[in-house]
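Example complex used in Figure S2.
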Amino acid sequence: MLTRLFTLVLLALIALPLSAATTLKIATLAPDGTSWMKQMRSAAKQIEKETEGRVKLRFYPGGVMGNDNSVLRKIRVGQLHGGAITGGGLSSVYPDAQVYTLPFQFRDLQEVDAVRRVMDPLIIEGLHKAGYVSFGLSEGGFAYLLANTPVQTTDDMHNLKIWIPEGDEINARMFKALGIAPIPLPMTDVMTGLQTGLIDTIASSPIGAIALQWHTRVKYLTEVPLAYLYATLVITEKSLARLEDADRSVVTRTLQETFSKLDAQNRQDNRQALDALQGQGIEFVEPSLSQRQEWEKHANTMLQALSDKGLFDAAMLKQMQQLIQAARSTSANL
Amino acid sequence: MAYRPLLSLSILLLVVWLSGCVSMATDRLANNLSQAMLNQTDPEIVRSGAPAYLLLLDSLIAQSPDDQGLLFAGARLYGAYAGGLVSDNQRQQKLTEKALDYARRGLCPETPELCQALGAPFEKFSLALAEVDEEEIEGIYLYATSWAGWIQAHSEAWSAVADLPKAEAMLQWVTAKDPAYDNGRAQLYLGVIGSQVPPTLGGRPEVGRQHFENAITYSHSRDLMAKVEYARHYARLVFDKPLHDRLLKEVLEADPVADGLTLSNVMAQQMAAKLLQDDYF
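Predicted assembly (615 residues):
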């Protein structure tokens, strides 16, 4: 009996640190060695150190776990605990996560900042209600139209083969309403599509266009932000709830700090990348203000119809637009 | 999300500097020195000895500023030293700048149209490259590898990263003319460049994989760096642990002594040991 007790005590001693250690499995599209992954690995190291090895982060970089949808599916079945997901990708778990990415809303980054100050917490709260904890949003930058002929008017778009991401119903409808048939393709096929001529026009952030080498296949950039892109790291509430409170605080604080750094870094990167595109001989064209306003009006009519159908919450869009208007009138008065 | 390709083309440049054509008077000295360094089993000796040779080459180039052989030797050595033996990024930036300048001065008198198009849009650059005569293969290769080294040292700058497709196109031009060029090192560069973008984002790492396989074949498996880069870039990108570990173990078990490759192979073994210890998978 004594021996048995002794064994149990020993087992308990051995088992304790083991069962207390939690490994959070996280997927991301960013390949290893990118600045994004370097920051994430450094955060993981800090978390492991501060929690004395009780919490580890294991990364699956370079999209080995698939695109946003398959990562979310793997999170649902428990194969992963979290992932870095784009705003568009998150709309399948929380429709309003895509509010920033809706077409023709922002004109500049001041407007973005004014909106994000108020609405980032709302998006984070919405994700939390859906069971996902976000550690802050990281800017992906404005997506611009990149084409082989200058695009300054709707007419200029009519003969173009415009790519839209597969499953992007909002942009599909927006282009169709303008009398244009866009070509939906998965991200995997964009470069091949550009090479074979299946598509000749894309929308991308400057850093995306350079990193994926799409910039070698286009000649013009239309200087109108089409959409504001962002990504965020989410981990399920269920897996974080397993952590001790103090450990959870370490995870939260460290990842929040990392995301805040990434957010600032990406803004600088996109500025630089935009200059680099110009340096590569890509010509920037600017549509007239009236044309921009016409596109904005068109987008808003279509968005109204989509929110009536329940694709996202009209109140969130309205709040964002009010904040944009307020920022616009402030800057006009300066 | 920020995506900045990691280029670790660094040590590849070491062997590029297998110099042959340094001008007459200095020919034997340069060749002997190059060979002595490349066949060295202790990287530290080369690390501390190479700067003297860099100074020597600078002075020779100052005397004969248009000597293509000397300029190419300068591009090779500065690129190799910066990529393989220097870890301070600011120094790497300056040294690769010099390598690229020497490569440009060596190549451009022969290919003025291409050189005018280096900063042009990609399509125009590609057309100019297609017109270059096959006999410029050494200059194109040296320019491409010096450029790749320069891009790596400046990979924090998007303007540099945006140039990568042009350096890649030049290397593709080289392998189209001679698939085995430089004992497969041109293939090795293309393997690294081709394994940067994951398939989920439209990358085609299988193309990179084929280049790595070619690099191993053309070097008759003597170039251990080919296997290290294959593991580090391709196997890690596609998360293939068995391939990763097999390649690195093969590197550790191999005899590093191979004419012209010893130094690079010793460094490859050091890297392989580190990579196997990483908790990547």
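The beta strands of chain A are 22-27, 55-60, 82-86, 132-147, 163-165, 183-185, 202-204, 220-236, 283-285. The longest strand of chain A covers residues 220-236.
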